[in-house]
Amino acid sequence: MTTPLLALALLGSVCLGFVLHLVYQKYAEASKVSETEALASKILRNAEAEAETRKKAALLEAKDQLYKERSEFEENSNLRRQELQGLEKRLAAKEEALEKRLENQDRKDADLDEKERQLEARDQGVRKLQADLERALHEERQKLERLSGLSSEAAKKLLLESIEKSARLEMASALKKMEDEARETADRKAKRIIATAIQRWAAPHTVESTVSVVSIPSEDMKGRIIGREGRNIRALENATGVDLIIDDTPETVILSSFDLLRREVARLSLEKLLADGRIHPSRIEEVVSKVREELEVQVKEAGEQACLQAGVSSLHPELVRLLGRLKYRTSYGQNILLHSLECAHLASVMAAELGANAAVARRGAFLHDIGKAADQEKEGTHTAIGVELARRYNESPAVIHCIEAHHNDVEFQSVEAMIVQAADAISASRPGARRESLETYIKRLKKLEEISLGFKGVTQAYALQAGREVRIMVEHTLVSDAEAFQLAKDVARRVEDDLEYPGQIKITVIRETKAVEYAK
Q1: Do both 418 and 465 map to the same domain?
Q2: Which domain holds residue 291?
Q3: Is pTM, for the whole model, over 0.70?
Q4: Each residue of 225-253: pLDDT tens digit?
């Protein structure tokens, strides 16, 4: 009985504990709900208070912003109002100025109208006076025609002829005076420039001859040079193209040829043959061929040396070789390579004095006769050949024009081209620089006199100073002073067109008036 009672008691305790637990749990939950409701109501009251506070702050801030914007609007309105007032004042001032200007313009228009009326009245008076004057002139003209027996057209023609003749004389006199002054100034400056150029380049002048002399060790060598039945001398002449003259001159053989290069080949070949002692046709051909090869090297070296002396660089190698060949070419006995060097230095100095391009003038003068190195191999003048060579080897247009114009084949287009021609003339006209044959000299003098005598009014003409001056006597009744001046220019132009000559020729026209009377 005890155990069941204990179990019942224990079960009852458990049930009671569970019931108490449920009661407690329900009480605790009721407490939590009440606490939660109290907290929620507190939070709601705080939120409402905070919202009220923020609402007041926002209202205050909106009021401040509105006040600020209202202040700015009022300030901007005041500024705009001031600007409008300023514009109104300026417009009022401009309107006032415009009204004054319109008033002045109205006054000017009125003055102009008045002046137009006065001018119209004056014009009518002038027209009336002009009509009266023309009528009077017509009457006077008719009276003059009756008195002189000439019509107005004939009188006008005579008057115009008289005025024209007088004007021509005055113009010729003034032209002569201006040209004399210009010539005096130009001559003075030109002499100074030319003297400076010549003083700075003192070139030797040795006129080249057409023969070379080779000394031989003994008279017996002449026979060996001639060879059996003349075969050696024939072989040497055929190989070199040079005439060998073996005469009674002791220990001397003369080589004759117009070509310096051939004579140089013959001279060197003969000297080598004499030094070697073996002289026969096959040996002659061998030596001549070898000398030609050596001379080609010397020609190139001579061209390079000339370029250094002239101060000209960057030339095409073929032009350098052709310049070296000019060492063995002459013009009227003047060595062309030395002539080209002299022209280059003269042109450079004159260009520097005149403010022109000295480099172009130097290069153009150095190459102006380059065509003479190849003129025996091509057709055409040495000027045309030189221009072709310069173009082929890419010389500049300025240098090509200097070459092309140095003999007046084309019109001058640059100062440098004129300087090159002047340098060429100076170098050629130096005393002793060139020579010409007696026959050519006499023909030139006769041609000068014939050209001078071919002009109207010329009575006598004399070539003086080795053809450097022509003096022309004219009839004073046929040629006036002004016409004498023009005659000198016409003769000079004809001489330039018809003759070739080194340097320049002075043309002097002399007009003399003789008054003769007899006392009875």
Answers
A1: no
A2: 211-429
A3: no
A4: 777 778 878 888 888 877 777 777 777 88
